[in-house]
Amino acid sequence: MSNADILTPFAGGIRLTIRAKPGLSRSRTIKIVDIGDGKRAVEVSVAADAREGKANKALIERLAKELGLTKKQISIKSGETGRLKIVEVVGDPAALSQKIAALLGF
């Protein structure tokens, strides 16, 4: 199966489809999950509650740490108040795609 539904390259980096899981007792493995209608997303769990942007901040921090990037390279482009988000990661699309592939095991 193609990963085009979760990872979209653009001139300045990549966009990821993310399903956030806030408020968990601990962070869990980042993995690909089915979100319905044949679509998939990268599921990222964080311990922070989904209040006052705390979970979004934790999501960016976790992605930055897992991918070896700075927090400034990662931003939420849509879905700030929902669990389903489009996250933009700035950098070389090919290098970023390799890092994400290694993280997700594809």
General description of the model:
With 106 residues, this protein is an alpha+beta fold. It has a single domain (7-104), classed as 2-Layer Sandwich (Conserved Hypothetical Protein Mth637, Chain: A), CATH 3.30.1200.10. Helices cover 25% and strands 36% of the residues. Strands 1, 2, 3, 4, 5 and 6 form a six-stranded mixed beta sheet that branches. It is globular.
Topology:
Blueprint lengths: L6 E4 L2 E9 L9 E6 L2 E7 L8 H14 L6 E5 L5 E7 L2 H12 L2
The dominant shape is: globular
Total DSSP E strands: 6
Regarding quaternary structure, how should these chains be classified? single chain
What series of H and E elements makes up the topology?
EEEEHEEH
Our Rg estimate from Cα atoms comes to 13 Å
Percent in helix? 10-25%
Largest sheet: 6 strands, mixed
CATH 4th-level superfamily: YggU-like
Cα(first) to Cα(last) distance is 10 Å
H/I helix tally: 2
> Any idea of the CATH topology?
Conserved Hypothetical Protein Mth637, Chain: A
Using the 3D structure, state the CATH architecture.
2-Layer Sandwich
Question: CATH top level?
Answer: Alpha Beta
